[in-house]
Write a structure and sequence with these properties.
alpha/beta; 2,3-Dihydroxybiphenyl 1,2-Dioxygenase, domain 1; 4-stranded mixed sheet; globular
Length: 138
């Protein structure tokens, strides 16, 4: 990928509890290939680990009270591509350890172009997250 190739630069998510969200994502993001980028009292962010190209993820305090609802117009889910099926299972294990509500256990999804092995769960804010491997390797 060249520096001027199109890529989604970053996503910004507003959350009701910045500290709780950061504690959750600080545990999750290394497993899906991201590292901390920067943090202030009013935001924090992650970037692809090791200087790899990709989308940065920023979190901000929600300017209005209320909880996110994924079934309304807006963000449907965020998917993180991981290199192996065992990485999908490791992310699932961490999600369970963190008390996340699991939507789909790690499995193949024949509805999508194969190979597609993934797990889906909800973060503390109600955002649906996915870890997916597009390889047969374990």
């Amino acid at each position: 990928m060249r520096q001027d190739d199109p890529v989604l630069g970053h996503l910004g998510l507003a959350v009701p509890d910045l500290d709780a969200t950061r504690a959750y994502y600080d545990r999750l993001m290394p497993l899906v290939g991201f590292e901390p980028f920067f943090a202030t009292d009013g935001e924090f962010s992650y970037r692809p680990a090791g200087g790899k190209p990709g989308t940065y993820l920023f979190f901000y305090p929600a300017p209005e009270p209320g909880r996110y609802r994924r079934n309304r117009a807006g963000l449907q889910h965020l998917a993180f591509t991981v290199p192996t099926r065992s990485a999908v299972r490791a992310v699932h294990s961490l999600a369970v350890e963190l008390g996340s509500s699991v939507v789909h256990e790690p499995q193949e999804f024949p509805d999508y172009p194969p190979p597609y092995f993934a797990t889906f769960w909800l973060d503390p804010n109600g955002f649906m997250l996915e870890a997916v491997c597009h390889h047969d390797r374990d």
